[in-house]
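Dear colleagues,

For the upcoming journal club I promised to circulate an example of a predicted protein-ligand complex. I picked one with inosinic acid because it came up in last month's discussion. The inputs are reproduced below in full, followed by the predicted structure.
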Amino acid sequence: MTVTIVGSQLGDEGKGALVDLWGGAADVVARYQGGDNAGHTVVEGGDEYKLSLVPSGAVRGKVGVLGNGCVVNPRTLFEEIDTLRDRGLDPDVRVAERAHVIMPYHRRLDGIEEEAKSDSGVEVGTTGRGIGPTYEDKAGRRGVRVGDLLDTNVLRDRLEYVVPQKRALIEEVYGLAAGDECDVESLVEEYAAFGRRLREEGMTVNCSDFLYERRQAGDAVMFEGAQGTLIDIDHGSYPYVTSSNPTAGGAATGTGVGPTVTGRGEVVGIVKAYLSRVGEGPMPTELDGDEREERLADRIREKGGEFGTVTGRPRRIGWLDVPMLRHAARVSGFTGIAVNHVDVLADLDTVKLAAAYELDGDVIETIPATTEQWARCDPVLKEFEPWPAVDWTTVAEEGYDAMPTNAREYLDYVSGEVGAPVYAVGVGPDRAETIELVDPFEQ
Ligand code: IMP
């Protein structure tokens, strides 16, 4: 049995809370894409852990896997593992030998390229973690994989080929000075040591085989998507995207588990009751039209804690965008949705969402394929009666029927439009503040 968790918007939908809630029934939690650009906070036994690479399940005694579709920065990986160990935990993390390694020159180039793009106002607003340049090298067949760290000769060969190219790019194309990130000897030394540690701790796996064997042994597997549908490299608002596939198809290619397996399981789209966006790109429902809207955005931002986990940047805020959710549901084939942060919208004068878009005089139901067209879309807004702030902890204890009626109407509308039932509703940051209607592992 597998459950795939997918962000249905722009990332930061609160996927971690559901991975937490349902991950309890999983034996293995596998990430299938992205790297340390993700940020999740796990609260366990009153302690808070901020992680960007280690799957949150690993804090809870599950096996955490970084699949072949991930890009792994070993510095971050071991920093996080060491911090968890210092705090008395013993996370069991396995890393796919086929996953690509984020090298120091990738991070450097991420920053340099963003800077160069910003001169012409086309920067993506990346997290600066070297994600894009690493996936570029993967597609360009000049990457370094985790398995290469295990053999110093192979590692050296790879670096001797690729590093002079990076140096030339930095020096000759961008006219900057290359530094330690382009020093083959020190890279071999540091990264071969990471390889030794990975081997000594038995952390590397052939991901496809590992998950096959675990499933044969009867283990339940959860696939934990990072980021979200609209920053998917194929299905997102290109070029304002990350360089991987957060959508459900990525779970198969990013771990080596067949799509017939993930497709027989559950695919749950995580939705935030409004929108937030870090970085550039269109956002038709953005609350930035006038001072009133900006004040409303500030209020939602503060109440929802909408500041980047990785970068600390304030997130842009907008109304829920249903065309976006229809697109997400079609791309990933949601069997259910979970809607978070419903409490954050309590006590407003009115609650709105975009039910459709208007583009060049036509009404359209999903997101157009080009970002330029998307930027020209005007939201067709639908208003809902507001719901009051209530004691959400009590509501969470009593269940869905205890939710304010107007909030339920809003959720029923969204579920109907997306064509998937509501599996859970988040009404607060605490684990106890998630109302569960359906446990996907029981489906
Ligand atoms: P990158 O993944 O660092 O290359 O950034 C590309 C785009 O994806 C930028 O707009 C980032 O802000 C966005 N992004 C990357 N990771 C996350 C995430 O975990 N949550 C929300 N946005 C993200």
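Two points we might discuss: Residues 11-12, 37-39, 124-127, 129, 131-132, 226-227, 231, 240, 242-243, 278-279 surround inosinic acid (CB under 6 Å). The first strand starts at residue 2 and ends at 7.

See you all on Thursday,
B. R.
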